[in-house]
């Protein structure tokens, strides 16, 4: 036990306890499922050691940096604690394998054990039952779980104060503070036996298995992320990814009751946008080309296929609906003064010098989808046409569009646009088959419907008496284009 002499030495300078055994540990403090940083915190408190001393000890003799444990260090530490506890080492699958990083519909999600178990935010999630036995299960750090697998009790949150704790020391130090507050009697041995059910190994097993096949399941079900057409404004991306994880990625039945509730999600559907129509250009599209595609394509559809393209029809009938609602309106309505973002209502005494709320919606959707209708004289107009031209150029580069007037030079466009009488003109037309157009139509349908839904939700709330405080309406859906096996799919996740 040479290594431990060093610890005795470290401690003896401080405490003058040279003759006594200084290395304390009790077997009931060890649990194979404990968060490793929590084990270290218990070790430090039990031995009245500063974390620098704990680190010095583990670092010098076991080459373990306790502040930032990698996978093998997690394993080694748990192994050491099992020896200290005179217990068999239970190989924990959660730390022996790693599922790698996931990309859930464009949202990166780190699933590595050593990253997840590290204390990264200002909170520690814990089980109110486990903590009574001085335990912090490592699965409490998996945020798609809502409750403790051992007690079926909802995890609670400890918020810590980081003002005086250095970043790298937080994982251990915050756990020390957490124990001090929640277990004021620690390390007094517990007289009362707490409820420690043991029949949950199957659930843990299922969690291990699922957790580590996640990457594979994710690749199979969600495929490769190509582009996010619409992002959700009302939910934290990470939380959104957890919803998808639980709902879409083959969660074992046994785990279902322990995961976060996903009823906030109204729907998850995926639209197959090409069966054999071969959008090979999608593969090489840049971010900007994806951004340009709906804008340029929809302007073409407005001019040439208004009748066939149902998304154009949806937009136009929504505009009619808005105009009609306005005509029939008797109660107050709102105006936005766009320069200073002030909202005034029709029943206020002042002049309404802003843009009417219904017109705002029409202009907003027009700008996104129907460039030819964009006729109001605003400073954005020139900028819009310039952008539109650049978008066309981008798509021409991808060969998915063919230029209409290839001889227009940059200079000519500038002079053309500097006169306000400019009429919308096409720069490029699609280089697709009619089958591909139909596929793109269905994609645009999904997108347009989502924008209209956002607009309706926003407008409804205002009509119910809420004062508007933002514009445009917040996005309530995530729409992501994925390549799943050999198919392109548009995933649509909508929250209420
Ligand atoms: Zn518990
Ligand atoms: Zn903290």
Automatic annotation (TrEMBL):
Q: What is this protein called?
A: Uncharacterized protein
State the organism of origin. Answer: Limnobacter profundi
């Amino acid at each position: 036990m040479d290594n431990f002499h060093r610890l005795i030495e470290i401690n003896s300078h401080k405490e003058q306890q040279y003759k006594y055994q200084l290395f304390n540990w009790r077997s009931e403090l060890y649990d194979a499922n404990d968060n490793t940083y929590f084990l270290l915190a218990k070790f430090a408190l039990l031995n009245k050691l500063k974390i620098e001393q704990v680190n010095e000890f583990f670092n010098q003799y076991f080459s373990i940096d306790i502040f930032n444990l990698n996978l093998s260090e997690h394993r080694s530490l748990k192994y050491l604690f099992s020896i200290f506890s005179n217990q068999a080492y239970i190989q924990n699958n959660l730390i022996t394998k790693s599922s790698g990083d996931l990309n859930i519909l464009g949202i990166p999600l780190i699933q590595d054990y050593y990253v997840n178990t590290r204390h990264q935010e200002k909170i520690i999630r814990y089980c109110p039952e486990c903590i009574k036995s001085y335990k912090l299960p490592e699965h409490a750090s998996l945020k798609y779980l809502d409750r403790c697998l051992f007690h079926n009790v909802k995890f609670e949150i400890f918020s810590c104060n980081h003002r005086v704790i250095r970043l790298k020391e937080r994982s251990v130090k915050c756990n020390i503070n957490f124990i001090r507050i929640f277990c004021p009697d620690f390390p007094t041995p517990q007289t009362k036996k707490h409820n420690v059910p043991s029949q949950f190994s199957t659930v843990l097993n299922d969690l291990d298995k699922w957790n580590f096949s996640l990457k594979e399941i994710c690749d199979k079900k969600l495929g490769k992320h190509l582009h996010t057409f619409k992002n959700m404004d009302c939910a934290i991306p990470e939380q959104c990814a957890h919803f998808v994880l639980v709902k879409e990625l083959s969660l074992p039945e046994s785990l279902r009751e322990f995961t976060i509730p996903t009823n906030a999600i109204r729907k998850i559907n995926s639209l197959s946008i090409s069966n054999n129509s071969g959008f090979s250009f999608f593969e090489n599209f840049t971010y900007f080309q994806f951004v340009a595609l709906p804008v340029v394509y929809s302007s073409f559809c407005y001019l040439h296929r208004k009748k066939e393209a149902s998304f154009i029809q949806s937009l136009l009938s929504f505009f009619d609906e808005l105009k009609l609602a306005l005509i029939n309106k008797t109660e107050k309505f709102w105006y936005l003064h766009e320069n200073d973002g002030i909202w005034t209502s029709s029943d206020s005494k002042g002049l309404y010098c802003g843009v009417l709320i219904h017109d705002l919606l029409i202009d907003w959707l027009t700008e996104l989808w129907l460039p030819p209708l964009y006729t109001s004289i605003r400073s954005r107009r020139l900028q819009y046409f310039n952008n539109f031209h650049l978008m066309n150029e981008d798509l021409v580069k991808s060969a998915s569009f063919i230029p209409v007037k290839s001889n227009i030079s940059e200079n000519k466009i500038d002079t053309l646009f500097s006169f306000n009488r400019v009429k919308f003109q096409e720069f490029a037309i699609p280089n697709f088959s009619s089958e591909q157009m139909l596929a793109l139509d269905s994609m645009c349908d999904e997108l347009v419907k989502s924008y209209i839904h956002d607009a309706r939700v926003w407008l409804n709330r205002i009509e119910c008496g809420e004062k508007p405080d933002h514009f445009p309406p917040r996005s309530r859906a995530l729409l992501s284009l994925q390549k799943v096996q050999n198919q392109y799919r548009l995933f649509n996740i909508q929250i209420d």
